[in-house]
Amino acid sequence: MLIAVLTGDSMRYSIIIVIMMIAMKLTSIEVGGHISSDTTWSPDNNPYIVTHNIHVDSGVDLTILPGTTIQFHAAAVAYDTYSYDFLIHPGGDSNAKMMYVHGRVIAVGTEQDSITFTRYEETPDNMRWGNVVFDDNAPQSVFKHCRLLYSFASLNSLTWLLEGTMCCMNGKIDISDCRFSDYRTAIWIDDIQEPLLIQRNVFQQYAFSPDGWCPTGFWTVSPNNGAEIILAFNQFYGLGTPCDFASSPPLSYPVTLLFNYLNLTLQVARDEADLSRTVTAGDSYGNRVINSASGGLGAYTVGVNSKGYIRRNILSGSNGISAFGYVEISDNVLTDCNRIQAHDESSVDIFNNRLKNTVVYHTGVGSIYNNIVYAFGVRSAYNINPGIGFFNNNIACTGTGFPIVYESSPLETIFENNVFLNVRPLSIYPYPFIYATFRNNYMSIPLPNQCIDGGGNIIGSNPMFADTLNGDFHLLPGSPCIDAGYDTTGYALFDGEYNHRVTDGNHDSNAVIDIGALEFGSGFVGGFAGHLYIGDDIPLALAKVDIVGALITREYTDSTGFFTFNAPPGDYTLHIHHIFKGDRDYSVHIDDNQMTVSNLYWEPVGIDDDTNNPSNPTLQLVNYPNPFSRETNIGFTIDKPGMASCRIYNTRGQIIKTIVNGKLTKGYQTYMWDGRDESNRQAANGIYFLKVETDGNYAVHKMLKLR
């Protein structure tokens, strides 16, 4: 027998530990069954131990305060199959416990004191609790700054498995700033009725799901009736995919991914169909994806009036990008990825992308232009079917294999103004083939006999790029590709960096398009950089900006409300849509070779003024800030194009400054007054009146200038 003898400090420490354990047991509360009246859980009673399934009854609020811990009794999950003894039927009970919500849960922690949902039993590791399920009629619940650990799934019926840590059956849920760890599926959404934004969460999964399935961050399973779903500013770590779509076809489930970070490791797909569900439907914009062997980004669209956008993403070590339907893939950077994939019968435009060791694989129809593919470790740079109507000004630079794999068909594709460096220009399948025409391309070796030589092709070994090995494909002075392209009309107006496409690069007074993705010596086409605000200095993030008539037709505002786009000089309308705020139009002007910078205000802030009594209230005349010291922004709306004036008057009715007087376009107008009069002198402090007149209507607004 081994006897431990405790003396002195050792005994005192042991007594303290025993006392703390007893105190914990005394303060903890066992909970379960129905919560039939409004209830508050607080950290004073930590931990709450769930011994039976919890039902938050209809019409009841369960409020959980910061720092509270809820521990659910857990059960072992089989690693190789479903364990139906573990799974929970909401109408009964089980070994692993859950929370079923008919009413509402308000679980709002803080950054310092989060709310924790976890298992009661810590060992073995396959011990899991159930999940939180919100029924069809439950009002919106709120979960902020919560930690949710070691959940698995529940069973709504013997045939319907609810996989999510949170299962929302009506789409009414606010989840933000939470952390999900070691789950099967983090969030399950069904029957979306209203706009849904899930943002700033962390999804961590470092091991396979206990039953061997590939874990998923977000899952949606049924038609959403046109409601928008946005995943924004979230972080995904470990195994699994950010989104999965449980039914076929997945075209009915538009989920937009904005500004997420995804660090995903090797995944095991459940079956071949699941590979198509590792992408999200809707737009993918501004995301960063790394280390995702089978996951990536994508967009699904359906219908002639529906278009998806995959823009400004950065991907490395991932499966890449997939597109179905009518999609624009542009301005992405891919390194060591699998491919950009445009699937059969899709109409996908692929342009202004930069790819290293990544293939462009297009089996549908569409256009491919201004892309740079330098693939030193893959067999082909481009793999396409006939039907590509526009394959121009691309670069294929490889160290082995073929830059183009082209699958034959009676349809013809014309390859113009491309660079095929260090490899043969075409690999044909099946053989023979006679329908590919090449004109004004730069090639390392002559065309194969099966191709049609359209003339103007240059055979050479050095197109004179700045630094091929390091990815700099700008043309150097004297390059044979300068002013050597075909047909200066009918092309996109910009190159791969949004410079003017057609420039007289060799100064022979004859502007001709260059061969390659980057025009030599060309100037910037112009652009607009804006900050969108709700009011005074409050950014409006995640607003969708559609630019009517521009080269690029869709952008998004980031967390600071910032967005930017490129367009030739001219006047444009910005149609801005926000998931909760609705729609608004603004008018902007762009000058050639300039980036116009301006602030736009959704809800302009100004002082209340009884003198603002317009004959046409649609003018919506405002200034901000108001009061102001040195300068103020002026905004008003023109409901139709025509002559209009905007002038500033002093209290005696004298014109101090004419802001604008001329023909204006329809929409929201913005100007800045620097506080100076017509003689460029600082106006005195005091009250001024801003007056807008258009088509016989007017509006007057009072402003206050202070030191």
What does this structure look like?
By secondary structure, the chain is mainly beta. It folds into 4 domains: 25-157 and 165-183, no CATH class; 338-523; 527-601, Carboxypeptidase-like, regulatory domain (Immunoglobulin-like), CATH 2.60.40; 617-705, Sandwich (Immunoglobulin-like), CATH 2.60.40. 3% of the residues lie in helices and 46% in strands. It has a 29-stranded parallel beta sheet that branches. The protein has a 17-stranded parallel beta sheet, with no helix packed on it. β57 and β58 (554-556) form a beta hairpin. It is flat. 46% of the residues are buried. Mean pLDDT is 80; it is low at 1-7, 16-25, 245-252, 266-279 and 604-616.
Descriptive labels:
707 residues, mainly beta, Immunoglobulin-like, 29-stranded parallel sheet, 2 helices, 3% helix, 46% strand
User: Would you count the extended β strands for me?
Assistant: 69
Q: Into which percentage range does the β-strand content fall?
A: over 45%
From the alpha carbons, calculate the radius of gyration and give it in angstroms: 31 Å
| Classification by helices and strands | mainly beta
Mean pLDDT reading:
80
**Largest sheet entry:** 29 strands, parallel
Helix fraction bin: under 10%
| Domain module tally | 4
In terms of per-residue confidence, which ranges show pLDDT below 50 for 5 or more consecutive residues?
1-7, 16-25, 245-252, 266-279, 604-616
Shape: flat
Number of helices: 2
Oligomer: single chain
Q: What is the end-to-end distance?
A: 88 Å
